[in-house]
Design goal:
Length: 194
């Protein structure tokens, strides 16, 4: 199984070390700095690697969550239904699309002594049944696509934003119904005699 490592250039030292250590331990790892041949088009090689990987390992840090390239890679991996393995190396706000995935926490590990978390990472890469698979719908290239999935009521009713928006819509509908049932008062015509 191939693992694609997504990261910010600001975290290159960690990313390269992790990739080299995982490769030395026998894992099939893809990292742009180690695996894009000289003279190759970066974006073409990146897309090929994303398509071919089974596991998407994202290094989370304040720098990576601000990177447009990393955001694009996250979206692509989720849309393609890859196994997702977030690895947090610095405290940061986890991107919305990754919040449901448990991450390996390297934040309290020194770069020289990251052994325990490294072992945890290897364990997760060895047994993908421990890794959640992204459930993003793959985009269809044909105009006819699969039927839309049925909404999950549990998810809908557990989302506070949807509940708030739903409550506002219900109040508006009730007001419209109440107001719609009332007719404006019109004077009753009276007969006048001539």
């Amino acid at each position: 199984m191939t693992t694609f490592i997504s990261y910010s250039r600001a975290n290159s030292d960690f990313a390269v070390r992790l990739a080299k250590d995982l490769k030395a331990a026998g894992y099939d790892i893809w990292l742009d700095q180690l695996d894009i041949p000289t003279g190759a088009r970066w974006d073409d090689e990146l897309q090929k690697a994303l398509d071919a990987c089974n596991i998407f390992l994202i290094i989370l840090s304040p720098e990576s969550i601000e990177s447009e390239n990393v955001k694009d890679e996250i979206g692509y991996a989720i849309d393609k239904g890859k196994h997702i393995l977030p690895v947090m190396i610095k405290q940061c706000e986890v991107p919305f699309r990754l919040r449901r995935f448990q991450y390996v926490d390297f934040t309290n590990e020194e770069l020289d002594e990251y052994g325990e978390r490294f072992e945890e990472t290897k364990s997760l890469l060895s047994d993908t049944t421990q890794l959640p698979k992204a459930t993003g719908a793959e985009r269809s290239s044909s105009p006819v696509s699969a039927p839309a999935p049925k909404p999950d009521a549990k998810k809908l009713f557990s989302n506070p934003m949807l509940l708030g928006a739903g409550a506002i819509i219900v109040v508006i509908l009730i007001a419209v119904l109440i107001m719609g049932g009332r007719q404006p008062a019109t004077p009753i015509p009276t007969q006048t005699s001539i």
